[in-house]
């Protein structure tokens, strides 16, 4: 057993996918991405060469189940990967879904259970406060 408590800030498990999608920036209605690298009911990581910034609003459309259902959501750019770290697959953008129908979110969560998570690309951060509290 590790002495340290690992920090996990995610509410949902990401799932590794290679999924066609359309991500359109709200500001100018320009297509900024068309391939998802991973997805969860809370958001997705998309490959993108566009100059997106944190907080940019986008509209996302994709199909992720065998039911031929379309998923539409408004999202916000939560992370920008420049693609310079070892293990990065090029430039990518992390999106957080700000709106998605509850029923569709549940359907997505259920269908993703069969998909494995992506392999970790770096060590998980340590939650120092909880690690110290463990010994107190």
From TrEMBL:
InterPro entries: PilZ_domain. It comes from the Bacteria. Residues 10-109 form the PilZ domain. SUPFAM superfamilies: PilZ domain-like. One of its GO terms (molecular function) is cyclic-di-GMP binding. This is PilZ domain-containing protein.
């Amino acid at each position: 057993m590790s002495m340290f408590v690992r920090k996990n800030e995610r509410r949902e498990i990401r799932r590794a996918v290679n999924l066609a999608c359309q991500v359109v920036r709200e500001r100018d209605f320009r297509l900024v991405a068309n391939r998802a690298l991973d997805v969860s009911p809370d958001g997705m990581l998309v490959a993108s060469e566009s100059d997106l910034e944190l907080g940019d609003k986008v509209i996302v459309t994709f199909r992720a189940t065998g039911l031929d259902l379309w998923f539409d959501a408004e999202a916000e750019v939560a992370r920008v990967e420049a693609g310079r770290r070892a293990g990065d697959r090029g430039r990518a953008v992390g999106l957080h879904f700000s709106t998605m129908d509850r029923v569709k979110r549940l359907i997505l969560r259920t269908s993703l259970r069969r998909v494995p998570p992506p392999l970790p690309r770096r060590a998980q951060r340590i939650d120092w406060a909880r690690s110290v509290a463990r010994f107190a």
